[in-house]
Amino acid sequence: MSEARTYGYYPGCSGMGTSMEYERSTRAVCEALGIKLVELEDWSCCGSTPAHTVDHVLSAALSGRNLSIAESMGLDTVITPCPSCLTNLKTATHRMENPEFKSKVDKLLDKPAPGGVAVKSVLQVIFEDVGPDAIREKVVRPLDGLALAPYYGCLMNRPPEVMQFDDPENPTSMDEILKALGADVVPYGLKVECCGASHGIAQKDVVTTLSGRLLDLAYAEKAVAMVTACPLCQMNLDLRQGQINSANKTNYKMPIFYYTQLLGIALGLPEKELGFDKLAVNPAPVLKAIQEPSHAAS
After folding, report:
1. Rounded CA gap, 73 and 265, in Å?
2. The pTM is what?
3. Which residues form a coiled coil (predicted)?
């Protein structure tokens, strides 16, 4: 990325609560990489997972309101760290290409939803607009020797006709970023399999089974940690790891990082800005293995 570019920024509701460490580390690394974030004024919930199960028009209107805010602020692209928010915003944009559907959405809004605001994930912008090569040049604290399992979850890249980023079955963008940081990326064959999502509330056994499989493979591939870009995936694998161990008779103590946290530490950002203290599984053993910043690097 030759010069800083401005993006509309949609933090999402979880960034204000359960995934504060993701929100904090996202802002920190974007600043370090020259990505200027302009938070949408008076943004509101996009509907996340539940809205579309009730009414597709309502779900699109919730996202449409936020896109209208971006348009009124003169922003042509909105980015978000959360795959659930990303899915809602992009699905709304996709469905509103149908004039009949859009007319129904517009009736629920104060003004018609815009048609020209692009939606991307923060991961996509970091990968495409900054790029692994530029990131590699900025690394001062490489993750040399760390065996990491990149886990994308089932929403970030699918369905491909809506998400339009990376391979839907074998995405590699996060792999390439981690490699640029010096990490050893393990061959993780379940990188887009579901963790159980929000079933942890209603059917805990779904999460303990599906997330258990994810941890099993990461452990079998000798990863020291898993890396994700999704707040819900991170919660299931991290916060519920004790429940998974109890249900499956395992004893995993595998840290589950957001990719932005590891990107931040490799760029030499202060650990307090990256929210490691919010992780349920103690990340200290992995963090201690990362070498101290090189003052010779620029």
Report:
1. 33
2. 0.95
3. none
pLDDT in tens, 177-234: 999 999 999 999 999 999 998 887 778 999 999 999 999 999 999 999 999 999 999 9
Does domain 141-270+277-288 bear CATH number 3.40.50.11810? Answer: yes
Cα distance between residue 199 and residue 207, in whole Å:
6
- For the chain, residues classed under CATH 1.20.1050.140 are 5-122
Residue 282 structure tokens: 């103690």
Radius of gyration of the chain from Cα atoms? 19
Contact criterion met (CB below 8 Å) for 212 and 244 = yes
Handedness of CA 260, 16, 51, 257 (dihedral sign): positive
* Positions of CATH 3.40.50.11810 in the chain: 141-270+277-288
pLDDT digits (tens, 9 = 90+) for 133-169: 999 999 999 999 999 999 999 999 999 999 999 999 9
CATH of domain 5-122: 1.20.1050.140
One-letter-per-residue 3-state SS of 176-216: HHHHHCCCEECCCCCCCCCCCCCHHHHCHHHHHHHHHHHHH
Sign of the torsion formed by the C-alpha atoms of 40, 44, 47 and 48:
positive
